């Protein structure tokens, strides 16, 4: 049975209050969750109709509350059932597919990685042109003071291991002795 009354006490911080029934009797507890979801906050003195139910401890509480002074809440059709701003299936599926594609690309790139970083590609040996005879060969020399020309120092820097001829790592060896003048 529906009862009519007015909201006489309201604690907005805690989200509950009490309704005084028009026909008299004790005040009835009401929780914010029982109000229509129309975006309006409850206000003291507001007329409302409600049904009475009992809480676990046996005290009366208002349920199925209607506020006749408020504009009626429009029920959403099936088409409008989604909340605005919430993505539908397509809006969820596209980002998921994008994440999967990026992950697959990253996995493929990582699995091809051999652990070395190379700025210049490896030279490709061809069999149709004979290699020019080398004027220089790696013989253990590692310092600029052991070189006789810029050309020799460049050969050693590019082809021999553990050389110490490019202090600033710019690819030009022996800049103070041979290749900087």
TrEMBL record:
<dbReference type="GO" id="GO:0003676">
    <property type="term" value="F:nucleic acid binding"/>
</dbReference>
<feature type="transmembrane region" description="Helical">
    <location>
        <begin position="89"/>
        <end position="107"/>
    </location>
</feature>
<keyword id="KW-0472">Membrane</keyword>
<dbReference type="InterPro" id="IPR019844">
    <property type="entry name" value="CSD_CS"/>
</dbReference>
<dbReference type="InterPro" id="IPR002059">
    <property type="entry name" value="CSP_DNA-bd"/>
</dbReference>
<feature type="domain" description="CSD">
    <location>
        <begin position="2"/>
        <end position="67"/>
    </location>
</feature>
<protein>
    <submittedName>
        <fullName>Cold-shock protein</fullName>
    </submittedName>
</protein>
<dbReference type="InterPro" id="IPR011129">
    <property type="entry name" value="CSD"/>
</dbReference>
<dbReference type="GO" id="GO:0005829">
    <property type="term" value="C:cytosol"/>
</dbReference>
<keyword id="KW-0812">Transmembrane</keyword>
<keyword id="KW-1133">Transmembrane helix</keyword>
<dbReference type="Pfam" id="PF00313">
    <property type="entry name" value="CSD"/>
</dbReference>
<dbReference type="Pfam" id="PF05901">
    <property type="entry name" value="Excalibur"/>
</dbReference>
<dbReference type="InterPro" id="IPR012340">
    <property type="entry name" value="NA-bd_OB-fold"/>
</dbReference>
<dbReference type="InterPro" id="IPR008613">
    <property type="entry name" value="Excalibur_Ca-bd_domain"/>
</dbReference>
